[in-house]
Amino acid sequence: MKIVITGALGHIGSRLIRELPSFFPEAEIVLIDNLATQRYCSLFHLPERASFRFIEADVVTADLDPILSGADAVIHLAAIADPAESFRKSRLVEAVNVRGTERVARACLRAQSPMLFASTTSLYGKASSPYADSKRKGEAVLQRLRGQGLRFVILRFGTVFGVSPGMRFSTAVNKFCWQAALRQPVTVWRAALNQKRPYLDLGDAVGSIGFAMKRGLFDGTLYDVVTTNTDVAAVLEILRNLSPRICVECVEANGMDPSSYEVSSRRLLSKGFRFQGDLRSGMAEIVRLLQSASPQNPLSFPPSVVAEGKLQRESEAETDPRLREDDSCEMGPKHPS
Ligand SMILES: NC(=O)c1ccc[n+]([C@@H]2O[C@H](COP(=O)([O-])OP(=O)(O)OC[C@H]3O[C@@H](n4cnc5c(N)ncnc54)[C@H](O)[C@@H]3O)[C@@H](O)[C@H]2O)c1
């Protein structure tokens, strides 16, 4: 069996490639990545029991036919995946997330390989971004090619949290944990404290990919994949329990998605998939991992940060502990995917 994974060295891919052999022990796993995000480290210490082949290639320009030839399935993760960054890079986002997806889909068609496409629950929000638009267009490309015989499945992932070798920290939960562990103020959007959003444990993301492939769910259906819907206040509460001395800094955000929404994974559950992750243990694992970055009294703030005036509330909180409980809002300037 041959499985091709694009964007294999990224946050999701780097965990997936380590867990996929337990779903398909005999598989040859071909990893494609253009190293745009420099996650070379995702290739280190791969499990020996599987057969891996890494190809440095760009889905926008590479000749994909020889790579996909004979593939039993293609998992398409390659993307510019940061919604906030996508405003600055809209051309690149269009090229990679739309044209790149179309190139992969057409190559799948020629190779007669089914395709799994990673999309996003951001599409349910009210505010748009080049990132969300590109995912919508990517989904539409697949639906169009369905008429020509493309077999595919779309998994709309919630904002992913969790640990991987190619981990990134631009998404909400991972970012909060990073800031807390690095003794930085946890920056949250004031207006969004009580807005609910869908989140996805990384283990569940990987599990859903393995599940969809094992079950051969390539009939063009779209599945939402969400471990939990929760608001940022609840995320901060968990973080406080893990790291009692966090300091939250509220920021105003222009262009923030004003909607509060929840997403159900009913369709995937009805196929028999079971979620195993939960926010609390996922965050505990991230915090444990990051603790080594700031081992001594990780959640007190260095004098330099206070001196820069970023933490006006720090000294007030020494005298009024309630301030630590009350001054939280939502994500900082970078909106999570
Ligand atoms: N992480 C999340 O919260 C989340 C949520 C919903 C959907 N998704 C989707 O899941 C997929 C994987 O997300 P991720 O978090 O692992 O992202 P990531 O940025 O960590 O990984 C993407 C990988 O794709 C590679 N890449 C970028 N452009 C490429 C190109 N032109 N050719 C080949 N490789 C290229 C990058 O080098 C990177 O290793 C993306 O499609 C993303 O949109 C992610």
Question: What's the helix-strand series?
Answer: EHEEHEHHEHEEHEEHEEHEHHHHH
**CATH fold field value of the domain at 2-161 and 200-226:** Rossmann fold
CATH class of the domain at 2-161 and 200-226: Alpha Beta
Mean pLDDT: 87
Overall 3D shape? globular
The number of E-state strands comes to 12
CATH arch. level architecture of the domain at 2-161 and 200-226: 3-Layer(aba) Sandwich
Beta strand %: 15-25%
What are the distinct ligands in this entry? nicotinamide-adenine-dinucleotide
Straight-line N-to-C gap = 32 Å
Model regions low in confidence, pLDDT < 50 over at least 5 residues: 297-337
Largest pleated sheet: 7 strands, parallel
Tally of DSSP helical segments: 13
Strands side by side in the biggest sheet: 3-2-1-4-5-6-10
Query: Helix/strand-derived class?
Result: alpha/beta
Structure write-up:
There is one protein chain. With 337 residues, this protein is of the alpha/beta class. It has a domain at 2-161 and 200-226: Rossmann fold, CATH 3.40.50. The chain has 13 helices and 12 strands. The protein has helices at residues 11-23, 64-68, 83-86, 90-111, 130-146, 172-181, 202-215, 232-242, 266-270, 279-291, 303-307, 312-319, 322-326, and strands at 2-6, 28-33, 51-56, 73-76, 115-120, 152-157, 159-161, 186-189, 196-201, 219-225, 228-231, 248-251. The strands form 3 sheets. A 7-stranded parallel sheet has the order 3-2-1-4-5-6-10, sandwiched between helices. Strands 7-9-11 form a 3-stranded mixed sheet. Strands 8-12 form a two-stranded parallel sheet. Helix 4 (90-111) packs parallel to helix 5 (130-146) and helix 6 packs parallel to helix 10. The longest helix is centred in the N-terminal third of the chain and has 22 residues, at 90-111. The two termini are 32 Å apart. 45% of the residues are buried. The protein binds nicotinamide-adenine-dinucleotide. The site of nicotinamide-adenine-dinucleotide has 31 residues, from helix 1, strand 2, helix 4, strand 5 and strand 7.
